[in-house]
């Protein structure tokens, strides 16, 4: 694998691809919708909070990018994420795609930033993440487990067009022969298709595109900064056709809104049509302060659902365990019905029988 000179800053980034984003829609959430919840580039202020004082703050397409050196590259993935990975790498903290429900929002509070108003407008950029990753992958204590990429912010969000951190991250995994899975909602992942294919020659590479539902009216409400579900499924199809196994992480499944048989079946069917090798259902999580915002929205728009939501989320940010299991079982049955996972199981047996993850 070719090594690449350190870049990691927009000035060093060279040619920039044209942005491919969903048109910014007026939010249906009302006037107290989270600032930047789908309007990357709108109204970002150059606010540098005290924990990040002294860091370079670079405006990129209206987003304030706070450049830091990575203290660590590989971090534990909290079990609550609902993903079958213990380890994750996140080149970015914060995300200009700005989904209103994003469970990564609370992390901004620890940085002295407002999780609802500044998550999409202030993005922390770990400019040396690939160098740090190389060192950690080479450490004797590292056991070579599969690593998920893009936990605290989409690794192909708009500012990646300028910073181009992902090509060097992919090369670090490939050079170490370490399996990895890219999580994204963005078609920008296709920019790195050749690199992903090169990496797939030497290790297990997967992509998971996030499609919680296929109803674009709902997408316009809760994920107005993301491209349409249809576009994400086209990305899934393109990756699979190019030989990169791509699955769908169904997140978020919105209780009582997108958990009906019709919604789940439509999403799983469309995933199957895109050749998805797996589907992983993840029910909406409501950590503070996403919870306050979401319940406030429900109170205005769907007041009849509020008591049932309060019961479902009575014990914290995760929905009731029995409910989550029912949804997961339903999705598993649908995935079986549409044949999702069969080709993946064959592929995995061929590629690396020792390191399989039990997806759906
Ligand atoms: S794309 Fe992913 S990381 Fe970005 S805001 Fe949406 S849910 Fe969060």
UniProtKB/TrEMBL annotation:
All copies of domain Radical SAM core, residue ranges: 89-260
Entry-linked CDD domains: Radical_SAM
Coiled-coil ranges (or none): none
Domain of life: Bacteria
Keywords for this protein: Iron, Iron-sulfur, Metal-binding
MF annotations from Gene Ontology: catalytic activity; iron-sulfur cluster binding; metal ion binding
Entry-linked PANTHER family: SLR0285 PROTEIN
Record protein name field: Radical SAM domain protein
Organism for this UniProt entry: Thermobispora bispora (strain ATCC 19993 / DSM 43833 / CBS 139.67 / JCM 10125 / KCTC 9307 / NBRC 14880 / R51)
Classification of source organism: Bacteria, Bacillati, Actinomycetota, Actinomycetes, Streptosporangiales
